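DM between two lab members

TW: hey, do you still have the Pentatricopeptide repeat-containing protein entry open?
JB: yeah, one sec
JB: this one, 527 aa:
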Amino acid sequence: MRPPPPHLVSFLRHGQCSCLGHIHQAHGFMVPRGLHQDSLLLAHLIEACFSLGFSRYACSIFAHKAQPNIYLYNTMIKLLSPSQAIFLYNKIPRAGLRPDTYSFPFVLKAVVRLSALQVGRQIHGQSITTGLDSDVNVVTALIHMYSSFGCVLYARKLFDGVHFGDVCLWNALIAVYAKAGDVDNARDLFERMPQRNMISWTTVIAGYTQMKRPKEAIEIFRRMQLENVEPDEITLLSVLSACARLGSLELGDWLHSNIQKHGFSGIISLNNALIDMYAKSGNIKKARDVFENTKGKNVITWTTMISGLALHGLGLEALEMFSRMESALVKPNDVTFIAILSACSHAGLVETGSWYFNSMASSYGIEPKVGHYGCMIDLLGRAGYLQGALELLKRMPFEANAAIWGSLLASSKIHGDANLGDLSLQLLMELEPDNSGNYTLLSNTYSAQGRWSESGMVRKVMRDTGVKKMSGASFIDVNNRVHEFIAEDKSHSEFYRIYEVVLKIYEQLKMAAHLQKESNGLVEFDE
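TW: and the structure you got?
JB:
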């Protein structure tokens, strides 16, 4: 039954049009009534064709339209492949038309997908020619385009050339800085913008998280809560990642409750992030609870749980989880095998780890990457097979990175092989000349063997080359506020009160130890 004219738009736009027969029916209804001359209805028909995969039919409709207007051109540019979209955009002037404020954003998206910066610059020039280079939609699209190619200075110049308070424009530039890793400039813009929305907050939070600055990410999230801005899935993912890095279990629990409260429990990505957060925050039981209650587990869900078990030294449980994963017919990926090899390393399962490593390509079709070789070298080194680890390093088809040499340096300390430590440090000094931890490990290896002159020489090299020992840092979450403590730093506002409490604890421990010795008859009395 043919739909009546008042319902034609609804028929085309709301899923009622679901096959080519319906497309023919709608088109056949429009033509004899002259409705195909209505650009809006024709655009809806074209969009329905593309949504169902009938792009050729859509192109035929457009081609047979006499003198299509800019609205129809924009519809086609939005829907076509990148190269076709740019080609059609270039035909607009030949049709006697001018691009409008929608043409530029649509074609610039095609430019980004095609990675065609030079074409993007030409289109930027055309926006100036048409006088639309100061339109908020066009400027925002240009900023997105330049940011996709890492052209931060171009994006900032565009932003500084206009004076809009439009939140989308500000968000676009904040995203540029966040993507480039310049979260300080992103924060500066965030603080100065005339109004903010949920995207503004999320972009800054995600930027801090990606730059491994979780304390600032959580601080911004706290402010977001105080201003009653509801987080979305992306916000929660970023904050959960920050919690995992800080080990902030209290906030993680609150986020878990918030996710349940807002009905987000069915979102796989959030459940995966919760598993990761709980595992890294020390509560492997809750990680398993979330895992077991997650429906439709994907490869990331399984891999995250396996990684969490490995992190807690539960190597056998991790391997059992992998067996369950295979039984569930979920295909592992290369990250899964990083987790498996890490589990074997923590559990000292050399033969099992070697079997998985050697069967990756043959049984699972996954070629080992440098990370897998690194895990295997770490497994052999931890277990004391230092020569085998070194031989595998020489055979691998990749250049050994700092993580691999660092692993060998650590293994050489565990098993007292100063020669391997020497070799590892020489390579690490080239790869990470400013990493004080490498020097410290080798110095400690020499000290453990009583080779004090060599230990002192390593310390001297550190001084001579200007390598400074990195200060240790720790975080603690108290009353929903994250506090950071750095060795020898007295800047905390409650430093003196904290010091007094620590001193009292020290005195109490000292007294307890004395009483214990006294009860065991170990206290010496002066004659």
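TW: got it. The chain is about 70% helix and 0% strand. The radius of gyration is 31 Å.
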